[in-house]
Amino acid sequence: MPSSFPASPRLLIIGGGLAGTCLAWQAQRRGLDFLVVDRDDASTSSKVAAGLVTPITGMRLNLSWRYPVLYPEAINFYQSLERELQTRFYHEVPIVRLLRDAKAAELWQKRAAQEEIRSYLKPEGDLAVDANYFSAPFGGFEMIQSGWLDTAAFLATTRLLFEQQGRWLTGQITPEAIQRTCSEIRWQGHTFSHAVFCIGWEAARHPWFDWVPFKSAQGTVLSISADTGGERRILNRGCWMLPVRPGQLRVGPTYDLDFNDPATPSAEAIPALEEKLQRLFKQRYEVLGSQTGVRPILHRRQALLGFHPSLTNIGFLNGLGSKGVLRAPWLSRHLIEHLLLGQPIEDELDLRANL
Q1: Phi, psi dihedrals of residue 203, rounded to the nearest 5°
Q2: For labeling, which of 100, 113, 282, 315 is most exposed (least CB within 10 Å)?
Q3: What is the rounded CA–CA span in Å between residue 87 and residue 153?
């Protein structure tokens, strides 16, 4: 175990999104003391996120990174917390991917023959997509071992419990507010062994992490009301439609690498999203509202975690992108085990190895 890691660390977790919240739960499960400090912004990627857990993703229709490992751990993690909190926030739902064009259909023929892909597919048969409601000229496939996490409910329920325990504060922590030595960190009268920054895309503007290769993207999600003919699955063709309750859905997302105001989409973003929706959905709908946030994405990396190369008790857990629900439980556990047991972090994921 590294000498800078005490036998019983006390963590200052900065940021209460998916990364920070899962890290706090992993710490609590191991009996560690911690304090979460979060700004409580309304438009964060974790609060805006659809929370989709999807095995086959992207234009290339590939199996999501480490899905056979990440999926069972994530599901066990959320379901165990549902039992503890007596609240439901994970919904296991099939996801239907409708192919965009003939090229995608040709690619899918190759992908569907792969053993690693077939285990996540519903047995072959009629997709049962109602042609009166949805456009599926090139067919598609239905995925199992998939679903969505109500991220807003998960974060709010967790926050309430941690506030009651005295382990959650609303506030902002600047580098200047932290008093740091090699052995301890002090902030507003509190003393910690380590501080872990889980502050999403804004870490790119933080003086301690501005060297990390962020390539974050703004995303907007619409809330709509519509009659979908009783369809309860999540459908995706250019955009996804997520039934939240009968007659109400979320639709998204946009993807903008060039943005000015993180909470305000460009003038083109929502019309472009609605154009995609209209290629998928044939019926009328009403837009009820929208939410916008920024996904913390790292260039050519799935995520990064670990400790700063020179500030040895300053930690980092970030870059989970659009797969935060799936990845956060596994990544946060690894960071806690590194801290407690000195377990090595893979070079691919280690903050220090990616300097």
Answers
A1: -60, -25
A2: 113
A3: 9
Is the entire prediction scored with pTM above 0.70? Answer: yes
In the chain, domain spans: 10-47+152-213+300-354, 217-295
The CA distance from 334 to 317, in Å, is: 10
Tell me the CB-side half-sphere exposure of residue 84, using CA atoms within 13 A.
13
Task: Find, among 352, 317, 349, 346, the residue nearest to 46 by Cα.
Answer: 317
Give the Å distances, CA to CA, from 230 to 93, 199, 222.
Answer: 14, 39, 20
Query: DSSP string spanning 100-120?
Result: -SHHHHHHHHHHTTSHHHHTT
Contacts of 173 (CB under 8 A, 6+ apart): 12, 14, 37, 187, 195
State the burial class of residue 101 (Cβ atoms within 10 Å of its Cβ: 0-12, 13-18, 19+).
Answer: exposed
294-311 confidence digits (pLDDT tens)? 999 999 999 999 999 999
